[in-house]
Amino acid sequence: MKLRFLSMLAILTAGFFTAAGETVEPIKYGNFDSWMTRIVPESHLLGGHKKTLYEIAPTKTVEGNIPYKPTVSPWATSNILANVVGIVKGSNAVFPDVHGSGKAAKLTTIMEHCKAIGLINVDVLVAGSIFLGEMIEPIKSSKNPYSKMEMGIPFTKRPKALRFDYKVSIPETGSRTYSSGFGKKRTIAGKDSCEVFIILQRRWEDSDGNLYAKRVGTGRERFSKSTAGWVSNHDITVKYGDITSDPSYRPWMGLIDGEKAYYARNSKGKMVPVHEVGWDAPDATPTHLLVMASASCGTAYIGTIDQTLWVDNMALVY
User: Fold this and answer.
1) What pLDDT, on a 0 to 100 scale, did the predictor assign at position 5?
2) 235, exposed or middle or buried, with CB in 10 Å at 0-12, 13-18, 19+?
3) Residue segments in the chain with a per-residue pLDDT below the cut of 50
4) CA distances (Å), 304 to each of 172, 179, 188, 195, in order?
5) What does DSSP say about strands 75-77 and 271-279: parallel, antiparallel, or unpaired?
6) Residue 52 backbone dihedrals phi, psi, to 5 degrees
7) Distance CA 181, CA 301 (A)
8) 3-class DSSP assignment, residue 14
9) For residues 240-273, b (16+ Cβ closer than 10 Å) or e, as one string?
10) pTM
């Protein structure tokens, strides 16, 4: 556990610089200039096509039905290799895109089709997302999607903000689509938003292997309007302790538990939910950092098709 903690700290930051009395620590690979290309041969029942998947990782190309496990990059994506009852399929909703002289991460909401005559014919809505942690591959079902994501990495610092560049494109539909692969697609009233958050937790484990956390710091923002172009050096401020009485507090900034609880591995290596059970003291030291950006802010499998969020130059500010 100690070695993993030290290694995660080493890959989190790629150096730091100071300006105007503050220290800025770029998150490693958070400039999104480096991408792994995965060429996944899908099952012959699905047509036997080759699907291209992207990961935020050292630049190289990997071909084959090989599960991806991050080793030197702290980032995971919603791009997945799935193997459901022996049917192999890839899904990709996060892409590299051009930004200035480098690249950015493009996160978009898509409808993934999976059709094998006589066996399966489903549509699954996928919102492009990136996060610090790991996607557990291969994905074997669309049930309980959070259980396939190890959310967060070890971390003990107290940043004052998450800084990044962003661009947003929101389709003017006024509605969202729900499609999980179970039952028919349906339209849901209401507008979707893109979202970026930074959450600091203090976690612990009980004798039965259950994981709990108190919320140390919170920074969460939703973007409901398209931008005219890129917005540079945008800060999401981290507020410490109980923020429920803060004027900027919204219900979706609250504690995360129940069906929406994120998962992590316990000391036995089992993926279990992390139950946020309260707000920590304002001066508490965290044990874990969660950073996520998503083309949707709703429940899994709900979103607006073609809604897109671009992000670049993710860094922590002190």
Assistant:
1) 43
2) middle
3) 1-7, 11
4) 10, 11, 10, 13
5) unpaired
6) -95, 125
7) 9
8) coil
9) bbbbeeeeeeeeebebbeeeebbbbebeeeebbb
10) 0.91
The helix (run of H) or strand (run of E) holding residue 39 is strand 35-41
**What residue spans of the chain are helical by DSSP H?**
2-12
Q: CA-CA distance, 120 to 122, in Å (whole number)?
A: 6
- Angle, alpha carbons 129-280-195 (nearest 5°): 20
d(CA 167, CA 201): 28
> How far is residue 131's CA from residue 53's CA, in Å, rounded to a whole number?
16
Q: Which of 153, 154, 102, 110 is nearest to 129 (CA)?
A: 110
pLDDT at 180: 78
Rg (CA), the chain: 19
CB burial of 41-64 (b: ≥16 within 10 Å; e: otherwise) equals: ebbebbeeeebebbbbbeeeeeee
Task: Quote the CA–CA distance of 187 and 198 in Å, as a whole number.
Answer: 30
Q: Which residues contact 35 (CB under 8 A, 6 or more apart)?
A: 54, 55, 56, 57, 59, 96, 103
Q: How many H-runs (helices) and E-runs (strands) does the chain carry?
A: 1, 26
Instruction: Write out the CATH class of domain 2-317.
Output: mainly beta
From residue 136, alpha-carbon distances to 203, 266, 271 in Å are 21, 14, 10
Give the model confidence (pLDDT) of 100-125 as tens digits: 999 999 999 999 877 665 556 678 89
Distance CA 217, CA 279 (A): 9
- Measured CA to CA, the distance from residue 235 to residue 166 in angstroms comes to 11
Structure tokens at 242: 């109980």
Query: Cβ atoms within 10 A of the Cβ of 26, count?
Result: 18
Q: Are 212 and 202 in contact (CB under 8 A)?
A: no
Report the distance separating Cα 28 and Cα 57, nearest Å: 10
